UniProtKB/TrEMBL annotation:
Naturally occurring in which organism (per UniProt): Terriglobus roseus
Gene3D superfamilies reported for this sequence: CAP
PANTHER family, alphabetized: SCP DOMAIN-CONTAINING PROTEIN
Protein name: Cysteine-rich secretory protein family protein
Keywords: Signal
UniProt keyword Manganese present: no
This protein's record includes keyword Signal: yes
Length: 249
């Protein structure tokens, strides 16, 4: 970080002291601004403040203060992904920085000088962050939880989005259906009328179809298609969309 950026951030820190709210401490606001300054300097998108991740970060920061030690997981404590999911966050990627220092400026500098922690700060795949800094005497205990958020969508919203992709790939008649939803919930086979082709897939975004499905649609030989969404069959802290696309002869 250049001296000019440091000067600006220090000025921001002083100003934040005057406007800090109960929701975000001055130290947390400083780290948030500093991280986004680092990302902007690297040509990366800013991360947004994630309240649920902040709750997870705070719980862990309090544990560190109590133990007077830094760690990503204390005895009897769930792992990072489980903690983040329990807070209500939906994510496909999650990472964490932990640190302790008597100065918030020194804390950020130390994290940026550590390759692994710097990689988390400058990870182009994350888009949100939760930060907590708690104080014990003159010592600060800080936690930065980074994530790539997965947007919460209803079944119908998921199905409508995938149906648009299937239609764009070449299907002339496609719509959500209860049979496709039931097929999605099954590990194999199908529900309802016998199909020409079935594909189940799991994804963290619904911006594109699996190549195998796109290829099969392009081959033709079907009259209509149906889309169904369902919950994951196995429990996981990571959020995904689970979809079945059924092609009918």
């Amino acid at each position: 970080m250049s001296w000019r950026v440091r000067t600006v951030l220090l000025w921001m820190f002083v100003m934040l002291c005057r406007v800090a709210t109960a929701q975000h401490t001055v130290a947390e606001q400083y780290l948030f601004q500093a991280i986004n300054e680092e990302r902007a300097a690297a040509g990366l998108q800013a991360v947004t403040w994630n309240p649920t991740l902040t709750h997870a970060a705070q719980d862990h920061a309090l544990r560190m203060r109590s133990a007077q030690a830094i760690s990503h997981q204390f005895q009897g404590e769930p792992g990072l992904a489980e903690r983040a999911a329990a807070s209500g966050s939906r994510f496909s990627r999650v990472a964490e920085n932990v640190a302790t220092s008597s100065s918030i400026l020194e804390m950020h500098t130390a994290l940026m000088n550590s390759p692994r922690h710097r990689d988390n700060i400058l990870d182009p795949e994350v888009n949100s962050i939760g930060i907590s800094v708690v104080v014990s005497g003159r010592q600060m205990w800080g936690v930065e939880d980074f994530a790539r958020d997965v947007q919460p969508l209803s079944y119908l919203q998921q199905e409508t989005q995938v149906a648009q992709l299937v239609s764009a790939a070449g299907a002339s008649s496609v719509a959500p259906s209860e049979a496709a939803r039931a097929t999605c919930r099954q590990s194999s086979g199908y529900a309802g009328d016998r199909p020409a082709f079935v594909m189940r897939f799991t994804s963290t975004n619904l911006n594109h179809l699996p190549p195998q499905l796109t290829s099969r649609i392009a081959q033709g030989g079907f009259s209509s298609a149906a889309v169904g969404a369902c919950d994951m069959k196995t429990k996981s802290s990571f959020a995904t969309y689970n979809i079945a696309v059924v092609l009918y002869p």
